[in-house]
Structures are given as C-alpha cells and as structure tokens.
Amino acid sequence: MPSPTTSQTSISGQPVSFPVPDWQPRPLPPKTGLEGRYVRLEPLDVTHHADALFQSFGRDTDARNWTYLPYGPFADADTFRHWLAGCQGCDDPLFYSIIDPVSGNAAGLASYLRITPETGVIEVGHIHFSPLLQQTRLATEAMYLLMRRVFDELGYRRYEWKCDALNAPSCAAAARLGFRFEGIFRQATLYKGRNRDTAWYSILDREWPTRRAAFETWLDPANFDADGKQRRALGK
To answer: What domains, with CATH codes, occur in the chain?
Structure first.
C-alpha cells in the first residue's frame, strides 16, 4: 500500500497543486466480509439476508427511513427480494449486509459506489440502518470497518459521502463520522418526483490516521458504561 499522499494549502486556505509521486491505480474492493468487535459485514446474499432485512426495515413503521433513498418502500417481501436480487453481485455499487452477530440477522445495508481505482476515489452510499441499528455501536463500527478497508487495505486517497441536502440526519452523521463538508451541488438530480440538491462530504487519506484513532477510542469497551451509554462522544 502506498504511503498517504501529502498535501498543503496556501495561507488563504485555497487549494494548491502538489505532486503525487509513484501513484498507481488501486485495487477494486474485494467481495469479502468485514468483522469487528460488535458487528459483521457480509457481501449481500439474497438467500441468507433478504428475509431478515425485510423484517428489520419493517420496524420503521412509518417508512421514514426510505424518504431520501431513490427506491422503496416495498409493498411486500417478494417485491423487496426482487429489488435486492438486482443489487446482489454488482461490482458498483458493491452492497454489504450489516449483521448483528448476537442474533445472526441482517439489520442494514451499505455499499461502496462510484469506485474509481485510477484516481483512488470511492464513495459510501445506499446506507440504510434499520431501527435495530440506529444510534448503536454496531452502526458506527460498520462505517469504521468500511472506511478502514478503503484507506488501510486498499490505499485510496479520497472517501466520499453524498446525501440530499435536506436530509438533516445524514448530514449530521457525516459530520459525526469525521467527513468534511465541501458544498452543495444544486439541482444535482431528480428522484421520487422531486429535486435533490446534493451535499458533498469527504475524508482524505492524510486525515484518516486522526479519524482512525478517534474511532478506535470511541469503540473501546471502556468508553461505555454498564447501561451501554457512551462516556465520551466520537472525536471528542
């Protein structure tokens, strides 16, 4: 893996050009699982994951979590399974099911997408945490594991997060995870019959070591009391 690129900005804060010596295109993400202390990610498998995902997403009884996704909600398990089958096996987006190792059930989805090995850029998206995952250590560790693979295993330079600018929870999640806000692309696309202004966020390779340390400190069991409440917020 190449060493992280070094960069600099001018005193005014404007970006400046800098060399990237000996750069080589990076590998595509492997279709293999990721395992942490609290959570496991597996490449999407309809046979093993569809039923549990449909039940987990069904806990969102007002379907609010589908609001800012370009698909869903799905009327029944068969319709959901058909959609999920179209996602399985894709190279881009590359979907992972988020597994609660205690129950063994899939409780959410996330993917890599817009994968560009030539320039070392990759995006995380299609993130859908069921109520079973929201505001849990499992959800945070899932994001950490995906990020760690991008930077530590694959040597990418830039990791992106994009969302509807109206999606306040997603914007807040990006900031909490350490992504830097870069701006809004106005009228970037249309979905579900409405306009989407897209908020862009990123983490760069040179920023990753600090973020990795923050994640590892937060995920340490000592950071949680007997009731599972955090003693210290992520990055604080």
So the answer is: 34-223 (3.40.630.30)
